[in-house]
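Title: Comparing notes on inverse folding

I've been comparing how different people in this forum approach sequence design from structure. To keep things fair, I'm posting one structure and asking everyone to reply with a full sequence. Here's the target:
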């Protein structure tokens, strides 16, 4: 049961946090994910795995309550329009390391742009240079 790294509308204070996470977590901790770039999407961001390990994305590590984990995983997959192996995915759910504020590294699920979406973002997307969706301009 891996925690989730959230970096957009699922972060505390953002609209999907209350809809999907409130009351279903046991911990939420600030974190960063290295080797990623962040792009502004239509109302939500996309993390893109960086070439050459450049970039980092700000977010939180969210640990689900054990009794909520299976349902939360299903709900987040649905929110992110992710189905294993589906070429129409907007996002892919992958396991990657994230670094907590105290330097501890944890493995977490993160939703990154699916290959077709990633190609479009790299060609025409608007990068969020700070790596923090809350600081987008």
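Reply #1:
Here's my take.
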């Amino acid at each position: 049961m891996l925690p989730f790294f959230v970096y957009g509308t699922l972060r505390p204070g953002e609209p999907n946090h209350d809809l999907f996470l409130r009351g279903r977590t046991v911990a939420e901790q600030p974190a960063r994910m290295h080797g990623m770039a962040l792009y502004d999407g239509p109302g939500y961001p996309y993390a893109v795995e960086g070439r050459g390990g450049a970039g980092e994305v700000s977010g939180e590590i969210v640990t689900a309550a054990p009794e909520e984990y299976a349902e939360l995983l299903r709900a987040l997959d649905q929110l992110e329009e992710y189905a294993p192996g589906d070429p129409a995915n907007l996002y892919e759910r992958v396991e990657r390391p994230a670094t907590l504020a105290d330097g501890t590294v944890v493995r977490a699920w993160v939703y990154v742009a699916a290959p077709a979406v990633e190609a479009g973002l790299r060609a025409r997307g608007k990068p969020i240079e700070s790596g923090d969706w809350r600081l987008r301009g």
